Automatic annotation (TrEMBL):
Its EC number is 3.5.2.7. It comes from Terrabacter tumescens. It comes from the Bacteria. It holds the Pfam family Amidohydro_1. Binds 1 zinc or iron ion per subunit. It is found in: Cytoplasm. This is Imidazolonepropionase. The keyword Hydrolase applies. The keyword Thylakoid does not apply. Residues 76-385 form the Amidohydrolase-related domain.
Amino acid sequence: AGAGTTLLLTGIAELTTNDAARGEGQTDPGDALLGIVRDAAVIVSGSGADARIEWVGPAAEAPDADERRDLGRRAVIPGFVDSHSHLVFAGDRSAEFAARMTGTPYDGGGIAVSVAATRAASDDELRALVAGRVAEMRAQGTTTVEIKSGYGLTLEDELRSLRIARELTPHTTFLGAHVVPREYATRRAAYVDLVTGPMLDAVVADGPTALAESIDVFCEPHSAHAFDGDEARTILEAGRAAGLSLRVHGNQLGHGPGVRLACELGARSVDHCTFLDAADVEALVAARGTTVATLLPGVEFSTRSPYPDARALIDAGVDVALASDCNPGTCYSSSIPLAIALAVREMGMTPAEALHAATAVSARSLGLDRRVAPGQPAELTVLDAPSHLHLAYRAGVPIVRALDL
Ligand code: NIG
Ligand code: FE
């Protein structure tokens, strides 16, 4: 619908609203969680990024609109919110993946390969690569994406990465503390000083959120390249003082301080959470409502790691989100449907919990509301199927597409 015109979407066999008010009174726990409306209609106004939801409800009660579109008895869900990705990179690490499949473990060392290729790429090359990956995501139903820097690791290349990411999403994250780059390998403290000093100053020079919303750190004592708990605390506290919200890569390769640190500092999200002990789970439960545990099952898949026990986390009361972590090393897949299928098959989540985690909870970790409700942006995804159960059921089949308005 153009500006000022309204469009009535009909033929919606099942609508996931993520609206708790619509979940009330539903007997199926999955339907209640997702705020399911069957035989639904939605009215939207405006087009493209400006499209807004005007009305949601049963088709039989739908008011008139200027135009109509029949979706053919399909399921409609909120667009996926991919709250963790590293799309700004050049180069190819497929050989590293192949070696891993025959037993070479992941240790973060390959990041240097992407850093070298990214530094060598022109702005236009990098921009085309990132735009291509965002388009690939949209074709798989993702309508909102967070993008991190972290393959520049010089002041200029980190700023350039964030600028290019910002052209495609407002949800950008400064990850200067991805790894210690090779040229600083024997001077770790000097690199932490660079990240928390001149780099961070430049990131916030035009205002705290002009270039990045958040700061992130790869907190991982099991990788020689990443940061330990003390270094991570220094980096996160500096980012918070500069006005950025906090995100953490924690407990990916083994047990460590990342998850507890993220909870203590009130991070919006701690991501991976592959290796958790009882104290980590306790910290996540206590941080409920503030810190989301973002699980990235594509990473376990692509690194031959055990999966985290999402069932236990949800049963304990932890807020669990799902995201892709699309990156050249640990998971070069941008597919949220794959993450959902793995979450259901390998981590004990119900199909409804997995969909909720990849929409409502991941949105919350970015400070967003993504209910399908009047006043919200019309970011909708259509399934070539009658219900959301088909997302995991039809694994690997391209049944998902973002709705162009
Ligand atoms: O989220 N763990 C740190 N960073 C990425 C992987 C980066 C890479 O290997 O290129 C991740 O898994
Ligand atoms: Fe990551």
